[in-house]
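Researcher: Re-running this chain for the archive, since the previous output was lost when a drive failed. Same request as before.
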Amino acid sequence: MRIIVCVKQVPDPEVVQYRVDSSSKRLVREGVEVVLDPGDGVALEAALQLAEAVGDSTLTVVSMGPERAAEAVRRALAMGVALGASAGVLITDPALAGSDARGTAKALAAAIRMREFDLVFCATESTDGYTGMTPGMLAEMLNIPHLSFVRTLECNGRSVTARRVTERGYQVLEADLPALVTIASGSFEPRYPPLRGLMAAKRMQLETLDVAALGLDPEDVGTAGARERVVELQSAEARAAGQVVPDDGEGAARIADLLARVGAL
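Model: Regenerated structure tokens:
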């Protein structure tokens, strides 16, 4: 099984209070702690468990970002060295700065097309952007099926079967390979990379690709090619205090009356 996992380096959501530059309207990434996106860790764990179940698998980690994003690629490789995670690809070029979901998908698709693959794994959305659009665009550009919000996954070498979480339960979906899957957050618990994996990943030579190597037009990616733009920033409205209903024997009746007044009953 030839598996590709797309990952991203993001400001650490556990320690960083996100700030947006008022002039560029972009997230401030300089001078902050960065990590492998937690959602990508979940997708990576799903890929590793499938590799364990199928056997005889290879795993390639692909990321787009500045040069220091190599740290996220190596972290992902360290988690899966024992299961065939043997190749890392970093797409980095100043021309890619300011890319929207479409520009990011174009770069990832160009890199993925350069190798043979059976399954592409992505998180449902990134922790810093939360658009959730890149995986669907990537599948469209690769002209392969996209199974989204996946909780469990099985593969017989020719097709993949997934349980997709919905608001009312699950859907069972099947698609022929190659395909792309997005893993629902919380579906898998990412493993901690062993010391052997960390040392092996540190020694690995990553493949670095720029816009020219991908065969892309610089005017079609980055800020120049972005179709999405942040036009205005506003502070979130403060939440109003809730209404407290003391239970003095009439609490249930008061709550029922309140729900009736707001049309919830």
